[in-house]
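re: that chain from earlier
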Amino acid sequence: MKKSKAKIRINVFFPMLIASVICLTSAAIGSNRINIQGGISLYPDPRTGPDVYVEFPFAVHRNQFTFLPGKNPGDGLIGGIYAEIILSDSSAKAIDSSNMTFFIAAKDSLDAQDENIRIFNRLSLMVPPGVYSARLTVIDVVGKGEGSFLYDRLEIDPIVSDLLNLSSIELAYRIRATDDSDAHYNERLIKSEREVIPNPMGVFSENDTSLYVYAEIYNLAYEGRTIDSFSLNYHIFDGKGNSYYDFGDLDQPKPGSSAVISNILNISGFEPDRYTVRLIARDMSSGQADTVSSRFIIFPRTGAMEFAPVITVKYPYDTASLETKRHLVKYLMAPQQLAMLETLNDSGKVRFVNQFFKDKDPDPSTEANEYLDDVFNRYVYANEHFSTMQGKNDGWSTDRGRVLLQYKAWDDREDAIAPSMGKPWELWSYYSLQGGVVFVFQDIDGSGDYRLVHSNAKGEIFNPEWDQFLKDYDPKTYKEGYILPDLQSD
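^ sequence. v structure.
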């Protein structure tokens, strides 16, 4: 269930609020791009089958929208948001959609510019099993600003009716029961008698202490005559797949053949990193189990992670094997040089590679070869960070490893977080290379092997949909949208 690149543009006109344009007030004036944090959750409930209930939670910063004065003095300011999800089949033909229009308010122009307030909502569809793509579009009704969030491969499996089955894990900033009649709830975000403030992309700050989890479980063995329970186990893994924290087993009574799972996991003290939370549910009566997982990231208190490669050489070039030396030059030598290298015996290959690096030495008068050191450092870094398996040392041959070796280290790197069941992607920017180029890598199959899907560098793979997406992509806004000191909803 993945983030998309479908290209569907929506043109909508709303006469309802388009008035008194002289009175427009918004921090977004002059910028029509709306940044969206979007997610996806699947609820394959057999009671509502055969179609699967799919939610598309999203969050936007309120200061991206334009406001008008209310009708009466003291009414404050009012704005409007139009949101639409369009579902397309494998041939990119739109086959279903859902939309809504809702109002947002601010006390005054200063309040309207408060960057700490986010608006939360969700769209939903009943989707037959199959493979789809989708596009979530959010439009500022007054200011006409627009933004899109793309899902490129939504794999909807058939509903299971005879085995224990879990829904997706939905991560949230807050979950609270709606049994307090005096409390204020966001009616748009209530389900199963709970208000769920979603964290669509699983992004948390080091200041956050709680990871709220919502899920549903189906096909429990339930007779109703005896008290029975099922068990839950939450296990956290770090960005390298190593076990980080096991919360142990938690028993939960069965209310029927299905149940809502709503828990709070203590993440205080977790180091800034990428994590995976794995949930295993076991039915004590039937002995059946099911497993789901979701990714989340914790950023440092000061902001986004620093991704510049800081590398130390762990072994000298002179003692490296011939195989390693061939790996070092594979993406650096011209085709004619590589062809000549293959015609030599082993000792000749070593001399040929050594001479290649000697010719590249920027200052032959010194013992150090800065060019070789830089290449070797990047090679070590690629194997440590991009290898397909721990200890395999094949990171140099992956797409990210190849680009790192061929083009040197990036000037800027954006680590973009996709939905919990989506495809994370990375954006590498080189400002001085060929007048400025980018490389986009995506975790296509969820294995952690990021493949190159787009670049505007000469000779590299070019994808027009990614190119258009990046023209609308604002890394600064995207990054600042992650960390908020205080959570507020409207």
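The first strand starts at residue 2 and ends at 3.
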